[in-house]
Amino acid sequence: MTIHTNLLSRRGVVAGGTALVGVGASAPALADAKRQALVNDSLRTAQKILEGKETPDARKNMAQARAVMIMPAFAQAAFIIGGAGGRAVMLARSGRSDWSYPAFYSLGSGSIGLQVGGRVQEIVLIILTDKGMNALMNDKLKFGAEAGLTFAREGAGVAGATTSAVGADIVSFSTASGLFAGGALEGSFVEPDNDWNALYYGQGASPRAILLDRRYSNPGANALRQYLGSV
């Protein structure tokens, strides 16, 4: 798995690449390599987790999915003072195999505690309720009890509120490499990256406009959409 050098970069910082901004919603923006690489990596992560022997329930939960968030490389590194970060895409479903184009998100956290080591995880969040999907479309969501959502853990390496998907808003699945003494997503925040959305689709491309209104498209994401539609 490739870890991009911009993994822990500040949201909205773009180096290199070109994109068309300001085109209409009916004309997709020209994606640069950075954003397209995240979409491509998200496809590989989805295939790995939804077809993985270590996460057999992932595919089963997809039958009830309202949306899915895919994090190809959620990195944690710490020695007493912890930090985490990465990028993700989210797709919403309307119909059995009809998935939206992906909206871009950034993740990060900072913590102080008895932590040591480092870990990189591939994570898939399967969002089972409208409540969970709407929470992830807000400006900023912090994972944890204060989020008002019920999380279920159905894979190695992700800390959740329960170990059963029954009644859960979001079910998390992951793979992990390396060592890390501490939580995974607990205390981390996720927020829409509207700079990346605009660069991939055009001005005004918010998560709601992409995921629910279906006003934006980019053929670079067709393989990911088609794969999810086949699961």
Question: Would you spell out the secondary-structure blueprint of this structure?
Answer:
Layout: H1 33-50, H2 57-61, E1 67-92, E2 103-127, H3 130-136, E3 141-142, E4 151-153, E5 170-180, E6 189-192, H4 194-201, H5 207-211, H6 222-230
Parallel strand pairs: 4-5
Antiparallel strand pairs: 1-2, 2-5, 2-6, 3-6
What does this structure look like?
It is built from six helices and six strands; from the N terminus they run H-H-E-E-H-E-E-E-E-H-H-H. It is an alpha+beta fold and 231 residues long. It has one domain (33-230).
Question: What form results from the Cα inertia axes?
Answer: globular
Q: Beta-sheet strand percentage?
A: 25-35%
**SS class:** alpha+beta
Task: Report the strand count.
Answer: 6
N-to-C CA distance: 22 Å
Helix content: 10-25%
Tell me the series of helices and strands, N- to C-terminal.
Answer: HHEEHEEEEHHH
- The Cα radius of gyration reads 17 Å
Short description, anyone?
This protein is an alpha+beta fold and 231 residues long. Helices cover 23% and strands 31% of the residues. Helix 1 (33-50) runs parallel beside helix 6.
